[in-house]
Amino acid sequence: MIGGFESDVFSTNTLERSSCPTDFGARYRNRLAKGRIRVIQHANLCHLPIQEGQARLVGPADVRTLEGKTFTVAARAYVLATGGLEVPRVLLNSPGVSGRGLGNANDVVGRYYMCHLAGTIGTMDLSKATSVWHGYDVSDEGIYCRRRLALRPQAQRDLHAGNFIARLHHPRIPDAGHRNGILSALYLARPIVPYEYAKRLYGDATGGVGNWLAHARNVVTDVPNTVRFLTHWLLNRTLAERKFPSVIVRPANLRFSLDFHAEQVPNADSRVTLGDGVDALGMRRIHIDWQYTPQDVATVTLALAALAREIERTGVGHFSYDPAEVEAEMTRYGAYGGHHIGTARMGSDPASSVVNADSRLHEADNVFIAGSAVFPTSGQANPTLSIVALALRLADHLQSHANVCALPLPKASTTALSPTSP
């Protein structure tokens, strides 16, 4: 929230909510044990063959373990819920009727691979704002919530841009010139920070002994702030069950960098295909060719320029950045975020989609897909809630058809597991 910032282009009242961490084993083990569902761990789905004499039916499914055990699973319906990369891998490793992959007669499986566009850029000086709050609030349910700057829907239409949000971010960590003990402590902790998060915090920056000593000096000279931060991190992140979501540092001079997140448009040339190598189970590995388009660059470029104008217009400060760095910054992480989207997209036309509105393969009557692989567009936000909504919708569909389904139960060729109702 930025005091004095009122804009028809950007809103500041939309929230990001960080869900409570869930130990699925602890939470659902008893319910699964008492129900009709059989859970098998360390079992890898490797192949979904077409039934002999039934071109539109699949099964029994070929399952293997790393220890060399093999068995099949016979069911009236199969649901792939293995993520945006493993879904096309399973489909392409199963030849289907066309021989090009299950559901891939029109060469759509694996295409339209999207993630999110993200980066950190520029300097946002908000020293003229009446107030600045960029930390987390806690809802009545105990959920961490955070405001962000979001491009309004009408502004998206006016700019011909995709969805875009931005957050106030701390100054660049590798530059010891910030003289902030907290940021320098994070720099010194670099060896133990997870890889993807480290890429966001530090980029590709490397420092020698001199830079390390400068950061150590910052930690020592800024001891009170450093101690407060480390205590907070220990209690609210390391030891807490509901963990504090991210690093929040408030610079004394209110000069922030800007963290942005944007929508990637569907692109048929951005795709996942099978590579030449095979894994320990004999399945071909995947080759990822993530690509972006001029429209993706335009979304970020236009949104940043609009934000700079609004910051100046409202008199709360100044946003400076190099427009020439936008494309390099927004692609620095590659297919960022672990959100793999669009590789088995939903649609009504089999020529441009893989599943129909019920998440069922156009080419098979008993194979369904749950997850962000079916998304026709990526959006800006994390896909989890939409995945859950579509999964619940699919479960309702399968349940409503469970007692009237005319599909025959395939015969398993080896050890088979009894099907369970959805």
* Helix/strand class: alpha+beta
Number of strands: 17
Residue share in helices?
Answer: 25-40%
- Beta percentage is 15-25%
Compute the gyration radius: what is it?
25 Å
- Rough outline: globular
- Report how far the terminal alpha carbons are from each other: 45 Å
Mean pLDDT: 89
Low-confidence stretches: 412-422
User: Biggest β-sheet: count, sense, barrel?
Assistant: 8 strands, antiparallel
Tally of contiguous helical segments: 10
Taken in chain order, the helices and strands follow as EHEEEEEEHEEEHEHHHHEEEHEHEEH
What layout of secondary structure does this protein have?
Elements: E1 10-18, H1 24-34, E2 44-47, E3 50-51, E4 54-58, E5 61-64, E6 70-73, E7 78-80, H2 83-92, E8 114-125, E9 137-138, E10 144-151, H3 153-159, E11 164-169, H4 181-188, H5 195-202, H6 209-221, H7 223-238, E12 255-263, E13 271-278, E14 284-289, H8 294-314, E15 318-320, H9 326-330, E16 336-341, E17 367-369, H10 384-402
Parallel strand pairs: 7-17
Antiparallel strand pairs: 1-10, 2-5, 3-4, 5-6, 8-12, 8-15, 8-16, 9-10, 10-11, 11-12, 13-14
Write up this protein.
Helix 4 (181-188) packs across helix 6. The chain is 28% helix and 22% strand. Strands 1, 8, 9, 10, 11, 12, 15 and 16 form an eight-stranded antiparallel beta sheet that branches. It has a three-stranded antiparallel beta sheet with strand order 2-5-6, with no helix packed on it. The model is unreliable at 412-422 (pLDDT under 50). The protein has 422 residues and is α+β, with helices and mostly antiparallel strands. The protein starts with 9 loop residues before the first strand and ends in a 20-residue tail after the last helix. The protein is globular.
